[in-house]
Amino acid sequence: MQRNRHILQNIQAGDFLILIDKTKHKTLGEPIQIQKIEQLEHAQQIHYVGLYQMRTVEFCSHIDLLPFASTASDLKTFYDDYRQYVRSLADANDVSAMLHFAELSYTWAFHGIGKTDTAMGEAKQYYELVSEQGQTAEHAQASYALAQMYLRIINPDYDAYFKLNREGNFQYYLLRSAEQGHCIGQYQLAYYIEYGEKGFQQDDEKAVYWYQQAANQDYPQALNNLGDKYERGKGVKRDYAQAVAYYQRSAAYDIVEAIYNLGRLYLRGLGVEKDEVKGRSLIMQAASRYYKPAQRKLAKLIEQNE
C-alpha cells in the first residue's frame, strides 16, 4: 500500500486508485473517484485525467490530491484497506480523520459494504468522540450529524443504537451543534423552537436568537426567517426596515420566499420607498418559479387591474 501527494510510485497494473478532494478535510479529503489501473503506463497520469473529467475547476488552484493505492484484488477489499488507513489515523486522535472515518462508516452502512450494523455503530461512536472534544467546525459537524441520525434513522437494523431516548438525544446534539456554531443546526433549532416542534418549547425570542446566529453566518433561509420575525414583530420589536434588509440579503442567495416577501413590502412601501413596479416584478419572479403564495398574489394583482 503506497501513497504520495503528487506522483504515484511503485504502482502496478491491477492496483486500485482513489482520488481525493482535499478541500473538505485537512488531513484526508473526500473520496471522489475510484479507478483500477489497467495498464502500467497510465499510472502516472490517471489521477490528473480522472479529476479533470469530474471537475470543471482548474486542478492546481482548487484541488490538492492525495492518491491512495492498494494491491487489493477487488473494490470491497480496496474499501477495507482505505477504511483501515483512515481508522489508524483516527485512533491516533486525529480529529479530521475521526470525523472522516465516521462519515465513511455511516455511508457504507447504507450501501451495504461489510457488516452494516457494525459500520453504523462505528459511525455513531466516532461522531460522539469528535462531538465531545471541542468547539471547532469539525466538532459542530459531528454533533449535527448525530442529531440527524437520531432524527432520521428508523431502520430496525439500527434500533439498538438510536431507539433509546431518541428525542432527547436529538435535542441534545442539535443544541450542541448550534452552540458549536453549525449554521444549519442553528437554523433548524430556531425553526423547531419557533413552531414548538420536535419536543422543543415554543419561544419566539429564543427562535429569533438562533435565527440571528445563523444569519450572522449568512445562512440564506435564516436571513429570510429573521426578516419575517422583524416584519411581524414576533420575538423582537417590529421593524420593517430591518425586515427589508434581511429579505434583501436572503434574496441575494435566490431564496424564492425572500424574493416574494421583499416584493410585498415594496408594493406596500413598508421599510422601503413604495415602488409598485419593482414589487410586482419581484412577485412575478417568485411566481414564475411556482411559489404558490406569489402565484396567488400575482393573480389578485392582475384581477385588480382588469
Automatic annotation (TrEMBL):
Q: What Gene3D superfamilies does UniProt report for this protein, alphabetically?
A: Tetratricopeptide repeat domain (1.25.40.10)
**What Pfam families does the record tag this protein with?**
Sel1 (PF08238)
In Swiss-Prot or TrEMBL terms, this protein is called Sel1 repeat family protein
Q: Which organism is it from?
A: Acinetobacter sichuanensis
